[in-house]
User: Which sequence fits this backbone?
């Protein structure tokens, strides 16, 4: 079993990798977690994680700049239906379009748009930064064992607005309801950072590693 | 609901934890990685390392501490001290820091903050503002660990930094740091109300009431403290229970 974390020049892969390695060690059966820029490895992986910090367009450009990576992702996630987890901007990239610093095309896997946070209370700070509670709207194997009201660590100024309610698995409230977990078929994405969310995050990562959609 | 963050801060010198009283008279208090693990277990909401060596010869030591911390602690980590180039930021982020605090370099070259935010994203750029009272209702920016005055107005500076892409302001009162007399609440409120980004209040915490005041009177989004946690005067759990009782939303589970 090989799970790849895609390295496309976006942020702190070290800590993300460490959290997946820790979760993998606790599971039976030699799970190999690798951070990679190698498109062939991604295309052949049993699970794919797309982390992401920074701006939407920069991340899309970063992905496009890795030779063969966009095609490898399509092949593994869309054609082969391998489990996919997008984290933060890595989740947002599944959208059709993003509106961070202009309009930009996303991967288009989930009918949705990425828009600026506009909390109803203008006194609320942007970025939405810190621990917020999760409200689960649907059951999902990746969310097993997480109780309503658990906290996860968020840091973002843009959010993913899904066209279909059934693609939203969990929400959080910050001057209005926001998508916290998105999912469809073999794809899930978290707006928060599971690798920074202590026990809750490790549980979600473990669930993802065990998920066989 | 978003919770108010409680952030223990470890001052690190040559890979060891120290905490200054008014930035001198250092006391050694242990291994940063060990401390980080304890805080992780105790339910701290984030951790902050400030490298007060800030000399580039010892950069490797800090990066090693950050890397080892990230192996054990799955919580947000901010690292600051001597960050002055994009490469410094990149190295700290790759070692496992989630956010990097920029202090003196932001004063000397405000455009550095814009460039860093553009390259790495606003979410990981914290501007550390060290301010000292310069008259009634006014504060001035200090650099070099509080040793050098700049003549720059602290509120205007914080607003400028937020515009340039600081995702967060780490505000330290130089008048209060190490005094245990509580945050400079007027300063904290002046800046928290002026900028659209979260403000972390720092400098002067001696009691749990001070933490509460930082939020209720200072309007801070997060409170940072070192010595009250570090020398075992209060635990993170006690601080959270106290703030919860005072009606401040905190993460208890």
Assistant:
């Amino acid at each position: 079993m090989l799970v790849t974390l895609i390295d496309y020049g976006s942020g702190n892969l070290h800590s993300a990798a460490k959290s997946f390695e820790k979760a993998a060690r606790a599971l039976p059966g030699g799970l190999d977690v690798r951070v990679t820029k190698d498109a062939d490895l991604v295309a052949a992986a049993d699970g794919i994680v797309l982390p992401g910090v920074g701006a939407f367009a920069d991340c899309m450009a970063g992905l496009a700049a890795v030779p063969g990576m966009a095609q490898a992702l399509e092949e593994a996630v869309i054609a082969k239906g391998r489990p996919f987890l997008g984290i933060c901007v890595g989740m947002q990239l599944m959208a059709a379009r993003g509106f961070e610093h202009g309009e930009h095309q996303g991967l288009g896997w989930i009918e949705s748009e990425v828009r600026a946070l506009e909390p109803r209370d203008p006194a609320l700070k942007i970025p939405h930064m810190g621990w917020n509670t999760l409200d689960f709207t649907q059951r999902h194997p990746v969310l097993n064992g997480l109780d309503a009201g658990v906290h996860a660590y968020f840091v973002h100024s843009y959010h993913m607005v899904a066209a279909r309610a059934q693609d939203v698995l969990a929400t959080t409230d910050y001057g209005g309801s926001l998508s916290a977990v998105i999912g469809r078929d073999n794809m899930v994405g978290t707006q928060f950072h599971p690798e920074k969310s202590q026990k809750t995050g490790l549980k979600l990562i473990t669930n993802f590693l065990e998920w066989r959609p | 609901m978003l919770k108010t963050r409680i952030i223990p801060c470890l001052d690190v010198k040559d890979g060891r934890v120290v905490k200054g009283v008014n930035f001198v008279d250092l006391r050694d208090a242990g291994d940063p990685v060990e401390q980080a693990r304890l805080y992780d277990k105790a339910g701290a909401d984030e951790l902050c390392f400030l490298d007060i060596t800030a000399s580039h010869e010892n950069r490797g030591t800090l990066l090693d501490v950050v890397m080892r911390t990230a192996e054990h602690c799955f919580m947000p980590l901010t690292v600051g001290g001597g960050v002055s180039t994009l490469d410094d930021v990149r190295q700290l982020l790759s070692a496992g820091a989630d956010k990097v605090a920029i202090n003196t370099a932001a004063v000397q070259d405000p455009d550095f903050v814009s460039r860093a935010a553009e390259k790495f994203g606003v979410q990981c750029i914290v501007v550390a503002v060290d301010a000292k009272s310069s008259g009634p209702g006014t504060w001035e920016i200090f650099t070099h660990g509080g040793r050098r005055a700049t003549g720059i107005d602290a509120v205007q500076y914080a607003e400028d930094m937020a515009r340039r892409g600081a995702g967060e302001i780490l505000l330290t009162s130089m008048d209060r740091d190490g005094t245990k007399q509580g945050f400079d609440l007027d300063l904290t409120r002046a800046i928290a109300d002026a900028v659209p980004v979260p403000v972390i209040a720092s400098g002067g915490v001696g009691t749990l009431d001070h933490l509460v005041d930082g939020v209720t009177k200072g309007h801070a989004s997060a409170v940072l403290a070192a010595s009250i946690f570090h020398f075992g005067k209060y635990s993170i759990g006690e601080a959270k229970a106290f703030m919860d009782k005072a009606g401040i939303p905190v993460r208890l589970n």
Chain A touches chain B at residues 11-15, 18-19, 22, 53-55, 58, 125-133, 149-151, 153-157, 173-174, 193, 195-198, 201-202 (CB under 8 Å).
